[in-house]
Amino acid sequence: MVAGEGGASAGGRRRRLTYTVTTVVGARPQFIKAAVVSRALARISGIQEHWIHTGQHYDPELSQLFFDELDIPPPEVNLGVGSGPHATQTARMLEGIEKVFDVHRPDLVLVYGDTNTTLAAALVASKAAMPVAHIEAGLRSFDRSMPEEVNRLVADRLSTLLFPPTEAARANLVREGLGGAGDVEVVGDVMYDALLATGADRPDPVRIARQGVVSGQYALFTAHRAANTDRADRLAAVVGGARALGAVMPVLWPLHPRTRSAIAEAGLAIGDGDGVRIVPPLGYFDTQSLVAGAAVVVTDSGGLQKEAYWHRVPCVTLRDETEWIELLGGRWNRLVRPLSAEGVRAAAEAAIAERPSEWPPFYGDGQAATRIAARIERWFAEGHAGT
Description:
Blueprint: E1 5-8, E2 14-16, E3 19-25, H1 28-42, E4 47-53, H2 64-69, E5 77-78, H3 86-103, E6 108-112, H4 116-127, E7 132-135, H5 147-158, E8 161-163, H6 167-175, H7 190-197, H8 205-210, E9 219-221, H9 226-229, H10 232-246, E10 251-254, H11 257-265, E11 276-279, H12 284-293, E12 296-299, H13 302-310, E13 315-317, H14 326-329, E14 333-335, H15 341-353, H16 368-381
Helix pairs in contact: 1-7, 1-16, 3-4, 4-5, 10-15
């Protein structure tokens, strides 16, 4: 997509006046991240951004609500792939993205995180010889049984520009031979940018009270990963853990559609009688306020681990591993395999009792999006984009 040409670059090429970036998103965390990067790109003359939404998250609470709250323009394309097995869902994305790129060939494809959307966009772009920039590059759990680990490994290897959020993530890339000069830049975490830019770092007590809980006196509980929802023993431990914790303090559980279906199919039940209040998935601002007001966050989400930390709330992560290793060393997060209800409850109580006093700034200064946009601008100016 070429809108015009200008003067010669330092390398002798003529610089184009306009370059196009296509952002491919599909899941709730990606909407949050892309919103702040999109605003940073919009401040740069000569860059036009277009959005593709794969429809990986399609429920209104997981998709449209975030576009509305974060004031994100509607994507030009929504593939509407919906849910399904990994291979089926990814195949639909591959086909849909390829059709779009056949008509509109961007100068750079921007992907986020580690979802099937990330994998599909990186694969299509790479096969079409289009450069890819990967935000949140270099994160590793070192567990290839996780679909997310496979997705991020492949995306990193197919990307031209890599934007790790931390030095540890950069070190992973270098160790894997992906640390070429100028191709990797530690930028910080764009989710922290979003928290500061939206004012969500200042929780709204009205949003907390609206959910019928008292600040500092409840646990915020979430679970949605396949490792927990698709295994009967783990799902029973997660549900039992919420009940056991509910006997100690009120538990607020925004229930993901995947988890709701899994609980029903397993014949499990949970509700207000267990000290657990089930609510629908929450929007961005409700979530941030409820994280900030919680005594502890119990989750298997990647993003909530960091958001709890930014709000200085201890977190228990119901997984075998985490890519956010800094939080383990700082004791703001602790890993717990959900093998028993009592194990989940005990970990949550210990996290509250042993809340750290130190809060090191692990994830940058809230300017990650600005650094990403500036590097993309320089990359275009260096003449890397095709003609």
